[in-house]
Amino acid sequence: SVANRVYDGTADALDLLTLGTLVGVVADDIADVTIDETGILAEFADKNAGNGKPVTVSGYGLSGDEASNYTVKDPTGLTATITPKELTVDG
After folding, report:
1. Of 55, 78, 80, 64, which Cα lies nearest the Cα of 22?
2. Cα 18 from Cα 22, distance rounded (Å)
3. Of 68, 11, 67, 72, nearest to 41 (Cα)?
4. How many angstroms separate the CA atoms of 40 and 60, rounded?
5. CB-side neighbour CA atoms (13 Å) of 19
6. Which helix (H) or strand (E) holds 82?
7. What does the pLDDT read at residue 58?
8. Higher confidence at residue 80 or residue 19?
9. In b/e form, how buried is each residue of 73-90, taking b as 16+ CB within 10 angstroms?
């Protein structure tokens, strides 16, 4: 999942991404295959404020002794909201 945030001028969503859990790992392998987060990228479609904005995630990998027995598919269909940043008037 991806958390919502206030507009910050970027499309980066990596710090908002919850890695999730692996589904379908064989019971005996659960301790020996994990998500490798080193190559993960998460980006909003653009930097502008808006509701339900698509977020593209790529680069999921696997690590651990049993990682070579699996492949992993990047999550799809993720959305989040960028709310407008509130400004104040000075003076």
Report:
1. 64
2. 12
3. 11
4. 5
5. 14
6. strand 78-83
7. 96
8. 80
9. eebeebebebeeeeeeee
d(CA 54, CA 76): 9
Q: Which two tokens stand for residue 10?
A: 């970027």
- For the segment 77-84, the average pLDDT, to the nearest whole number, is 98
Alpha helices by DSSP H, the chain: none
- Two structure tokens written together for 21: 């859990």
Radius of gyration of the chain measured on its C-alpha atoms: 17
Q: Which amino acid is at 56?
A: T
Tokens of 37: 């987060």
Give me 35's structure tokens: 């998500």
- Cα–Cα distance between 85 and 66 in angstroms, integer? 45
37 — pLDDT class (breaks 50, 70, 90): very high
Q: Token pair for residue 50?
A: 């808006």
